[in-house]
Amino acid sequence: MYSLKCVLGTLTVFIVSSLIHYTDIGWCLISVILVLSPDGKDSVTLGITRLKGNVVGACVGAACLFVSPTNMWILSAGIVLTLSLCYLFKLDNGVRSALAATIIIMLHEGGKHMWDTAIERIIAVLAGCSLGLLITYLFHFRNRSEVRPSAKDQAETSS
Predict the structure, then answer these.
(1) In the chain, what are the domain boundaries?
(2) Which pLDDT band, with edges at 50, 70 and 90, does 144 fall under?
(3) How far is CA 102 from each of CA 2, 29, 70, 113, 154, rounded to the nearest angstrom?
């Protein structure tokens, strides 16, 4: 099922991006994959935690860019701040996603305006996380309905 989730996320990103003529899909794809988790009873909780981690990372990355253009010191400070906030908010399972988001937001290509790149990446990261969480919900609730018998089935088996 995990591979199906990953393929569905990838195809959805490609289809939606082609419809809106958006070509820089790498960060969105990475974010989808980081939020998805193998099947399990805690997959929704884990997806929400990773989404929260991505929000923390994106906010820290943007805040660091307000302080200074990216260099090794500000990036290191962003990493430490991201780790600290994830610890404070008890987002241990979202730390890797948060760190990835911080780095994604803070790095930008030469020739592009720093804030244009940062805002595009914040949107891409949050869109990817949201898509990953949506896919997790769809698979989780589909699997729950297959496993849990309906009230009608329970009544028939008890009589």
Answers:
(1) 2-141
(2) low
(3) 26, 16, 11, 18, 49
